[in-house]
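Minutes, methods subgroup
Present: GH (chair), OT, SY

1. OT presented the first of two proteins processed in the latest run. Sequence and structure tokens recorded below as shown on screen.
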Amino acid sequence: MTINQLKYVLALNKHKNFTTAAEKSLVSQPSLSTQIQKLEKELNTKIFDRSKKPIKTTELGEKLVKQFQIIVSESLKVKDLINYQKNKIVGNLNIGISSTLESTILPLFIDKLFVKFPDLNIKFVVNKSELLYNSLKNNELDFVIGLTPLNDNDLTIKPLYYEPILIVTTENIKKTNSTEIELSDIDTNRVLAPNKENEFRSLIENIFPSCNYNEKFENNSLETLVNLSLTGNGITLIPYLNYLNLREQEKTKVYKFKIPEPSREISIVCKRNTLKKHIIEEVFFLIKSSMKKIKSFTDVKIIKSKN
């Protein structure tokens, strides 16, 4: 039994396809298949049912996979432990970032990150926060830049920023002379919301629970929905960091909610027992310092995304 064999099993269990598992493992498909067969022969048990399409992990195989995840995770900690004791910032760093944050957060710090840590092999994975947290627990990621709060005692959460949600519309929806808008001022039937697969959609649903939205335009692009609102085709909610990327003329069509403003919490999330804590701390402070030039908000109401 080798660590590589266990990694191949984990890859096949994840992708349910030999070709894809081999590509992700950077080996040939015959090599991956042969190594898994050798392991099954050594253990005298079938880990996968190859008669099923897609390939199915057997009942005993599911239990073995969980144990293999622990073994592979612990094996990876050996180098991390050595680097941790020597306070070295080297090796691989796999970072997950929410797909709703990639275009606004990443440009703020990515250049500084590569300059500050030239000896780190940094890889970014973009997905929904919920899926990234699952990958974090499976030791596929070292930390996640995602949306919180979370209820998970195995994870450490370090808030980076509280980001208000704003309103884009050409309509006069203010009921008073105030520059702030009440939630009750919004006709949700006019709200353009992204598709349900979009992480930002779940946040909108928590701001306006049990409401109907304008489903005339089915689109997953926040940029497209904002442009539709700017041409008078509805109301769009937009995170503050996305608002900063608008042109000055477009910003005149953006309003804020009455305080405490509905906001999302952006955090760095890692496992409590990570041996890369010293690296993650350094990255946290780098990102935090990169965001100092952006207006901060404290009088907010954190809206949790539905999982």
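2. SY then presented the second protein from the same run.
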Amino acid sequence: MRRVLPFACVLLVMTFVGSGVGLATLALPPPPPAPPVQLPTEATLPLDQPFTLDDLRPPTTPAPAPSGVPVRPPDNEYAAEPHIVIGSIEIPRLGLAAPLNQGISLTSIDRGPSHWPGTALPGDAGNVVIAGHRVTHSAPFRHIDQLQPSDEVIFTTEGRRSIYRVTGSEVVTPDAMRIVDQTAEPTGTLFACHPPGSDKYRYVVKLALSSVTSTAPGKPILLGS
């Protein structure tokens, strides 16, 4: 009898171990990951007709999140960039109301005012940098040099409306990359070639954030007044 018990114990242990392996084998696989959420918008809208963000279609390529480090302009001025619209820009003094594109090559700027990737988004801390043409295509920044201190520049992006005010202007050479430097406070920069029809200089308009409000019904004011 004493010789049988150790052998029986071994059998019991093997039975339990075998059961454990069987249960592990029968365990259900983890559920598949949820599908990715579709982000911002892509559209081509007539610049001479009213529009809202509801008119913008989901993009085929979502806009990358700003990194705080502006991307370098491409060596090829017409480098291909996906057509992404991140919101709209309004400048009352210039009579401008247009979609706001994402990109820094002329491929993007030819479509209209374009946000420099890697710079702040409207309403966020940092320097939101926007480029536009003065002569070619729709020439949205044709009269950028007529902007005066306290003039409004209004951005509407997903969920919020950000109002900036002009604080000053300057003329710089094309290699003055300091205009895209990021800031601790929420600021903005508009720029275009100068004088009209020439790319010898850049006309730069500096902005400061005045207020940010939510565009969702019943949502409170986010910043400013």
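Chair's summary of item 2: The longest strand covers residues 201-214.
Next meeting: continue with the remaining queue.
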